[in-house]
Write a structure and sequence with these properties.
With 287 residues, this protein is an alpha/beta fold. It has 2 domains: 79 residues, Arc Repressor Mutant, subunit A, CATH 1.10.10; 198 residues, D-Maltodextrin-Binding Protein, domain 2 (3-Layer(aba) Sandwich), CATH 3.40.190.290. The chain is built from 12 helices and 11 strands. Strands 3, 4, 5, 6, 9, 10 and 11 form a 7-stranded mixed beta sheet that branches. A two-stranded antiparallel sheet has the order 1-2. Strand 1 and strand 2 form a beta hairpin. Helix 2 packs across helix 3. The longest helix is centred in the N-terminal third of the chain and has 24 residues. 33% of the residues are buried.
Length: 287
């Protein structure tokens, strides 16, 4: 099957509009429509419901979408692998969330690149919801996350415990005031929220909710407020007095894990080395 047909279908499903998809793919809307029609003819079923303003997925389209994403990703990776230079012997595709990339994985990329130039590194940003699916379908070699389900196919390694502190732009405020109207609630997972409520004995009155730690950090930096953030993320701000730890708030700790498919972990030496180096990088970052 022509991979361009799959890429076009994925983009149309994402944008829900032929014209918008055409702009992103540098095609005409008629060319996009022709590709979708060709794909539907090959599959023998309609994938899209069409109207004048937008398109939506049919039940068949919904079932096919995830497979199309996976095939497109695997094809792209296969092309990259086939064109690796002679000095590159292996590759590692790493997926994680924005918070963990900014906390320590960027450091790990630089260290891994310097110590193992023969290994090609791919860094991908994912949401928590898509990480494990991408790993199980072979789109990623290793994922780094706070929450990883225990599955028979996975080898899971704990890298470190990461501390989260309640910080504010105001000095010497109490936890109840910090978790009032100016509190920015960052979704660090159900376990984090349940543990925090258990320790505090009361909930927050958050004006903003987000699942992106850097967004909460930027909001505090620009307009004030408070949030639970990784200590490493705010270390420099605490040192110069741009932010302050709310002293009577509990420090929350969460384990950071790396996971890989067991068959990959047991046969891919550089993957084992890379995960071991992640552990060292996170320890340095958390000091």
């Amino acid at each position: 099957m022509d991979i361009e047909l799959l890429r076009t279908f994925v983009q149309v499903a994402k944008s829900q509009h032929f014209r918008k998809a055409a702009e992103i793919l540098y095609l005409t809307p008629s060319a996009v429509s022709a590709r979708i029609k060709q794909l539907e003819e090959r599959l023998g079923t309609p994938l899209l419901n069409r109207d004048k303003h937008q398109v939506s997925l049919t039940p068949a389209g919904e079932r096919f979408l995830e497979h199309a994403k996976q095939m497109s990703s695997i094809w792209y990776r296969a092309c990259q692998e086939a064109t690796l230079s002679g000095t590159v012997k292996s590759s590692i595709v790493v997926g994680s969330t924005d918070t963990l990339w900014s906390s320590f994985l960027t450091r790990w990329l630089g260290e891994m690149r310097q110590e193992h130039p023969e290994c090609s590194l791919w860094a991908e940003l994912h949401t928590v919801d898509t990480l494990i699916s991408a790993l199980l379908h072979g789109m990623l070699d290793v994922v780094v996350s706070f929450d990883i389900p225990v599955l028979p196919r996975l080898t899971i390694k704990e890298l470190a415990m990461m501390d989260f502190v309640l910080v504010s732009d105001v000095k010497n405020i109490g936890v109840e005031q910090a978790m009032g109207a100016g509190y920015i609630a960052v979704d660090w997972g159900d376990a984090f929220a349940a543990s925090l409520y258990q320790q505090l004995g009361f909930g927050s009155i958050a004006g903003v909710h987000t699942n992106v730690g850097k967004l909460a950090y930027a909001m505090i930096e620009q307009g004030g407020g408070s949030a639970y953030l990784p200590r490493g993320m705010v270390k420099a701000d605490l040192a110069v007095g741009r932010m302050f730890v709310v002293e009577d708030a509990p420090i929350m700790s969460r384990p950071v894990y790396a996971a890989a498919l067991t068959e990959q972990y047991e046969s891919h030496g550089r993957l084992v080395t890379g995960i071991e180096m992640m552990g060292r990088s996170v320890q340095i970052a958390l000091v």
